[in-house]
Amino acid sequence: MTTLAKQAEPAALPKPGKPAKFGIRRIGDLKIALLFIFPAMIGFVLFFLVPTLRGIYLSFTEYSILGDPTWIGLKNYTTIFSDDLFWNAMAVTVQYVALNIGFQTVIAIGLALLMHRVAKSTFIRGVLLLPFLVANVIVALLWFWMLDYQLGIVNEVISWMGLPRIAFFGSEQWAIPTIAFVNVWRHMGYTALLIFAGLQSIPNHVYEVANLDGASPTRTFWSITMPLLRPVLALVLVVTVIGSFQVFDTVAVTTQGGPVNASRVIQMYIYQKAFGESDFGYASALSVILFIILALVAFIQMKFLKGNETDLD
């Protein structure tokens, strides 16, 4: 009985003056982690947090670079809602986002499936990623010259086929679709690799069971592949939508918002207000509105796509 009673006694607690060893280890790990995070935190505070807070402050002021900010309250925000150019810029941006995301996602899924099932060469995957490694400005200039109305090789081929030349960047009808095409070409390889990584995480036995049940490739794709890719697709859509709303350099190099505001996206409008008209207060208010829109879009996407859930559980 004495032995059983001793075994039933709870383990002795550490003395108040001596903390447990695992506590010391955790504190030591925390200090090391903070040491590594500290340089990145300095960059985040200096180049992201401080400019963001200053931009929010300037959005409530009338400010040009030649004078001091003057507090005007919500005047910039009330002006935005009656600004026709702002609504035109938002409509153009939404058109671009719809074209860019639609084509880029579909093409990227197709390329990812080809890499997963057919082309398993690392060299081919590297080739697909090459356009993404080229700077946006270089890609925009390349396609600007290739699609030039008079001397571009694409229009030369079109003319050789007996068809009328197309003013890809100089037409109201073609400007935004052309810009969307250029950015789809640059980003589709990177997006495909993200989706390919998601395909790699799907267990093979799931497809084996589907084959045993006699499921066709189409049925397997819609019933197994797409549902199990949902977390990856949610991440890809959030990243690509946010990036699409922030398109600027391709427009700045090719059309500069023309012709007749047909390609003036919201980022170009913000740039023109700030550096073209020196209205930094109004441009800051536009930036804050864009930030709120992007935050809401990302939240809605993650909520409805259920990006934090997976059917593998």
Short description:
The protein is mainly alpha-helical.
Comma- or semicolon-separated keywords:
two-stranded antiparallel ribbon, mainly alpha, 313 residues, 14 helices
| Portion in helices | over 70%
**What does the radius of gyration come to?**
27 Å
Overall SS class:
mainly alpha
The major β-sheet equals: 2 strands, antiparallel
Query: H/E order of the elements?
Result: HHEEHHHHHHHHHHHH
Beta strand count: 2
- Largest sheet: spatial strand order: 1-2
How confident is the prediction overall: mean pLDDT?
A: 87
Span from first to last CA? 47 Å
> Which stretches are low in confidence, meaning pLDDT under 50 for 5 or more residues running?
1-9
Shape: globular
Strand portion: under 5%
Number of helices: 14
Characterise this structure.
The protein is an all-alpha fold. It has helices at residues 2-8, 21-58, 75-80, 84-117, 122-133, 136-146, 153-160, 175-200, 204-212, 217-228, 230-245, 249-254, 266-276, 280-305; strands spanning 61-62, 70-71. It has a two-stranded antiparallel ribbon with strand order 1-2. β1 and β2 (70-71) form a beta hairpin. α4 (84-117) packs across α8 (175-200), α8 (175-200) runs antiparallel to α11 (230-245) and α13 runs antiparallel to α14 (280-305). The longest helix is centred in the N-terminal third of the chain and has 38 residues, at 21-58. It starts with a helix and ends in an 8-residue tail after the last helix. The model is unreliable at 1-9 (pLDDT under 50).
